[in-house]
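wait is this the right file?? whatever heres the structure
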């Protein structure tokens, strides 16, 4: 009987390797493990075996049954992946070249306004000696929180409605500060860089909030960096983006990764006739001097080096610059919306 079990298992594996359709795999499983399957028929004869034989055969039967289940699930996953890849390959459309787009009768649109302003800001910082870095969308708890002076019991975590994965150890990054953490750990001061990208929070969608939005954060670390350096670079950035000088102010603001922390506002005239030249202050970006704990977590001696950090909401910049009234346009997929900014 043990020989029959081993032959059954060997034959099953040989047949399974030849199959490439889900139904065929399920049928094979039923033939082996079903109520009237081959394995069930073999087990029925256990009543004629001795107690010692039943013990050995029962254990071996359970082993083969579990292994057959695992092999079936693995094969089904392989077939599903192959089907997905085949579907994607057959339905693939090349939008990378204007000629191929036009050949398929599709109208060329333009670059997304967020992409436009991101590229422009990257060029501005590159001209000032900054690097442009990138980082993963899926992060771990250390890079997203702990390395930024936000331990597990810190109330600042309550300000970010996070998309956690099932293991509760990984998450969709809630800010591009994670790029700063990775950048600091890979460099020795002095350095300066920016990190643009998408971030994700469990926000209720409305005209000014989205679950997926865009940030650009940056920092400069060296010796004897001051708030004056921070103000200079921020004023230069705003002047280059909006093509005019702005009156700015710094208000105290709390952010765990900077000390002191500020909210940078600009004096802003809202669009419309009959309004005063100064429509009020517009909160634009958080900033501050990098907290010593953040430097320590990245292996930088805060007694020797210091620096500033800042964050920009790219979506808000786009709305201000182009007079867009609703953030939901950005993810609408409307080609008419995109085509009004710039062509390929």
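ok assuming it is, sequence goes like this
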């Amino acid at each position: 009987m043990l020989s029959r079990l081993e032959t059954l298992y060997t034959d099953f594996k040989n047949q399974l390797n030849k199959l490439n359709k889900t139904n065929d795999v399920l049928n094979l499983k039923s033939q082996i493990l079903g109520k009237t399957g081959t394995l069930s028929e073999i087990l029925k004869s256990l009543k004629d075996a001795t107690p010692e034989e039943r013990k050995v055969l029962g254990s071996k039967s359970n082993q083969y049954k579990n292994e057959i289940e695992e092999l079936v699930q693995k094969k089904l996953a392989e077939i599903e992946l192959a089907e997905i890849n085949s579907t994607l390959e057959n339905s693939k459309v090349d939008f990378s070249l204007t000629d191929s787009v036009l050949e398929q009768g599709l109208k060329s649109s333009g670059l997304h306004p967020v992409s436009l302003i991101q590229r422009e800001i990257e060029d501005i910082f590159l001209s000032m000696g900054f690097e442009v870095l990138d980082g993963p969308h899926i992060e771990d708890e250390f890079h997203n929180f702990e390395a930024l002076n936000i331990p597990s019991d810190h109330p600042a975590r309550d300000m970010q409605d996070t998309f956690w994965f099932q293991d509760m150890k990984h998450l969709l990054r809630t800010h591009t500060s994670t790029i700063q953490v990775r950048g600091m750990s890979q460099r020795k001061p002095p350095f300066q860089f920016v990190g643009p990208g998408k971030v994700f929070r469990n926000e209720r969608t409305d005209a000014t909030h989205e679950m997926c939005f865009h940030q650009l954060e940056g920092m400069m670390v060296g010796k004897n960096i001051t708030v004056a350096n921070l103000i200079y670079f921020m004023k230069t950035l705003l002047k280059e983006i909006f093509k005019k000088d702005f009156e700015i102010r710094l208000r105290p603001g709390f952010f765990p990764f900077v000390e002191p922390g500020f909210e940078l506002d600009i004096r802003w005239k809202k669009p419309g006739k009959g309004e005063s030249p100064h429509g009020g202050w517009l909160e634009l970006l958080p900033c501050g001097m990098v907290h010593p704990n953040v430097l320590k977590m990245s292996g930088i001696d805060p007694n020797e080096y210091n620096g500033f950090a800042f964050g920009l909401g790219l979506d808000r910049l786009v709305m201000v610059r182009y007079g867009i009234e609703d953030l939901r346009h950005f993810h609408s997929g409307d080609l008419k919306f995109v085509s009004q900014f710039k062509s390929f």
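Residues 2-90 form one domain. so i think its the right one actually
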